[in-house]
Design brief:
- With about 450 residues, the chain is an alpha+beta fold.
- The longest helix is centred in the C-terminal third of the chain and has 25 residues.
- The N and C termini lie far apart (about 70 Å).
- About 15% of the residues lie in helices and about 40% in strands.
- It is globular and about 105 Å long.
- The chain has five helices and 26 strands.
- The chain folds into four domains: about 70 residues, GMP Synthetase, Chain A, domain 3 (2-Layer Sandwich), CATH 3.30.300; about 200 residues, Trypsin-like serine proteases (Thrombin, subunit H), CATH 2.40.10; about 35 residues, no CATH class; about 80 residues, GMP Synthetase, Chain A, domain 3 (2-Layer Sandwich), CATH 3.30.300.
């Protein structure tokens, strides 16, 4: 029997018992990690929501160091949830999903921003996604998902084009009748003479430069937007790009991808098709992390989830994005800012959630306890703004009537605890006996 077969057999025999342990979400076969490095030793891998200290686990929930003579490895993967495709219809819509002007194929919804003058929430993406590369008018329908993903005007209209920064092209098709006539005459003569070369009229503006490819849409209903990005979460402000910075993005085509910033202050010529090209200055370049349809994605720092740039172009070897502060300043918008109170409350909630995860099993084992959660604390019968654990009991008893092991502490690991009487919790099924329908 090969090593893999031995490990697989151990997994097959023991996975059911392992999967039923608290906090375990999966069991598989993989190489064991030691001190943060992957070894060449095959092991039975136990996937858990969160790694919990052994002291906080009951004996029946402990992961054995080996099963069937095979060593185990515990890997934290978080909560496993089904993920809708980035190309599907989302309401409310987060950043990272399919979006576009009704006459383009599809790009990506970058994120929600707020207008500096009015405070209104708006949708941020590229000019060539929302404004059809200068060829749109304010008020044009914006679809989510984009037309290439089945979006239709009316049913899938999420908003309307508000404003955009025009793209200045260094070359684009000619609109001058004289130039077009000259080219047509020259091509007619060339054809009559049997020449293979042809003339093409185009506009040339070699001094045209751009800083951003950006536009805004006003949502049809404010409630149809959510201030977070798919698979990334909430964006915590703005940061300046640095060489070697690790970045991530959530996009319509490639989903959640990562890269490394390799070039700052780049001047780049970008091909927009239809004989149009534009030069952009002050751009950021990363390793490849995008494909067609990802335009408009928000580039975010891997550490801290700060906005870094707005993706608008790329190739098989590189991804190009505008610095995010240049985009915000050009459009006169800002990322939604959370107040210090909101930030403090978020930190308190995260701390309380971690403590709950560690101790809820022990708390629920106490007689009279029917539930454990996270919520605002009550003092003197009134709700406060303090976040902590909420331990729900059938009935409150004086401390003098409780055994020491059944007492609920007033705080756990620095997190306050509020005990609330909720009575006996039962399934609520409608009873037909004696009921009347009016």
């Amino acid at each position: 029997m090969s090593e893999f077969e031995q490990v697989y057999q151990a997994k097959a025999i023991h996975y059911s018992a392992l999967l039923h342990r608290r906090n375990v979400v999966g069991v598989g076969v993989g190489y064991k990690e030691h001190a943060g490095r992957v070894t060449d030793e095959l092991s039975v891998v136990i996937l858990v929501r969160n790694k919990i200290p052994r002291a906080a686990l009951s004996d029946e929930d402990l992961i054995p160091r080996q099963v069937g003579g095979v060593r185990t490895d515990v890997v934290e993967v978080g909560e496993i949830r089904p993920l809708n495709a980035h190309t599907q219809r989302w309401r409310p819509a987060p950043g990272g999903v399919s979006l576009g002007h009704y006459q383009v194929t599809a790009g990506t919804l970058g994120c929600v921003v707020r207008d500096r003058a009015s405070g209104r929430r708006m949708i941020l993406s590229n000019n060539h996604v929302l404004a059809n590369s200068n060829d749109a008018l304010p008020g044009d329908p914006i679809l989510q998902p984009g037309a290439a993903d089945g979006g239709e005007v009316g049913r899938d209209t999420i908003g309307y084009l508000e404003r955009f920064i025009p793209i200045r092209y260094v070359t684009e098709p000619a609109t001058c009748n004289l130039a077009l006539a000259y080219a047509n005459l020259g091509n007619w003569l060339a054809q009559r003479l049997g020449a293979r070369h042809r003339l093409q009229a185009f506009q040339s503006n070699p001094t045209a430069v751009n800083r951003v490819d950006a536009a805004l849409a006003l949502p049809r209903q404010d409630s149809e937007l959510v201030e977070e990005n798919l698979e990334i979460g909430t964006i915590d402000g703005v940061t300046t790009a640095e060489l070697g910075m690790q970045v991530i993005k959530s996009g319509r085509t490639t989903g959640l991808t990562s890269g490394t910033i390799t070039v700052l202050e780049a001047s780049i010529r970008v091909n927009y098709g239809l004989d149009r090209a534009a030069v952009f200055e002050g751009q950021l370049v990363s390793t490849p992390m995008s494909q067609g349809g990802d335009s408009g994605s928000l580039i975010v720092s891997a550490q801290g989830h700060h906005a870094v740039g707005l993706l608008f172009a790329g190739s098989g070897q590189a991804t190009i994005f505008n610095p995010i502060q240049a985009v915000l300043d050009a459009l006169k918008v800002d990322l939604p800012q959370r107040s210090p109170r909101q930030l403090n409350q978020r930190n308190a909630v995260e701390r309380a959630q971690a403590v709950k995860l560690l101790y809820e099993h022990n708390l629920l084992a106490k007689p009279n306890v029917v539930g454990v959660g996270v919520g605002l604390q009550r003092r003197g019968g009134k709700r406060t703004d303090e976040v902590g654990l909420v331990v729900m009991v059938e009935r409150k008893f004086p401390k003098s009537l409780l055994k020491s092991e059944d007492l609920i502490p007033t705080e756990i690991d620095g997190v306050p605890v509020d005990v609330r009487e909720v009575g006996q919790v039962e399934a609520q099924e409608h009873s037909h006996a004696g009921s009347q329908i009016n």
